[in-house]
Amino acid sequence: ISKHIWQRLGCEQDAYITVDTAGTEFAGGGLHTTLRDLARFGEMMRNGGRAQGQKILYPEVVADISRGANPAQFVSAGYHTLPGWSYRSMWWISHNPHGAYMARGIHGQALYIDPLAEMVIARYGSHHIAGNLGIDPHSIPAYHAMALHLMQSK
Fold first, then answer.
1. Is 139 helix (H, G, I), strand (E, B) or coil?
2. Phi/psi at 14 (nearest 5 deg)?
3. Which terminal residue of the chain has fewer beta carbons within 10 Å of its beta carbon, N or C?
4. 44 exposure class (CB count in 10 Å sphere: 0-12, 13-18, 19+)
5. What 3-state DSSP class applies to 1?
6. Which of 91, 40, 84 is nearest to 64 (CA)?
């Protein structure tokens, strides 16, 4: 990850990944970054896998992630704060008119990407509830409102 992604993004600090007792990386969570470097990663995703004039990820991979899955099948997962959304490859897809999608962590961590508004929001938080149920009704509409505001000012 360091050689093929992080260094090529021009990140300012090393990132760390949580490992289990055997030293195996835990890919389902535990990525520790600086906020600015997380935003750099989000900007690379927003630009179809490109950063600093080079291809970091295959554009097909980014397109597949941002396309998401079937929102109708996602309903049974029970995420009532994410109506119309889906989940694909560890990303949460809004299926809104902007094509927004996000990576979500515990206690309010988020990387929200709105391609139409050309906006990336990197957020660290410390909400007392680990899951996002307590913040979704406020944070997701706020992200979209910021995107709308940015688009009006163009």
1. helix
2. -65, 150
3. C
4. buried
5. coil
6. 91
What pLDDT, in 10s, does the model give residues 89-146?
999 999 999 999 999 998 899 999 999 999 999 999 888 988 898 899 999 999 999 9
Cα maximum dimension of the chain: 51
H, E, C per residue of 94-138: CCCCCCCEEEECHHHCEEEEECCCCEEEEECCCCCCCCCCCCHHH
Compute CA distances 90 → 54, 68, 147, 149, 150, whole Å. 24, 10, 23, 28, 27
Interatomic CA distance for residues 91 and 107, integer angstroms = 17
- Tokens 């957020």 sit at which residue? 123
19 DSSP assignment: B
Cα–Cα distances in angstroms (integers) from residue 153 to residues 42, 118, 148, in the given order: 22, 12, 9
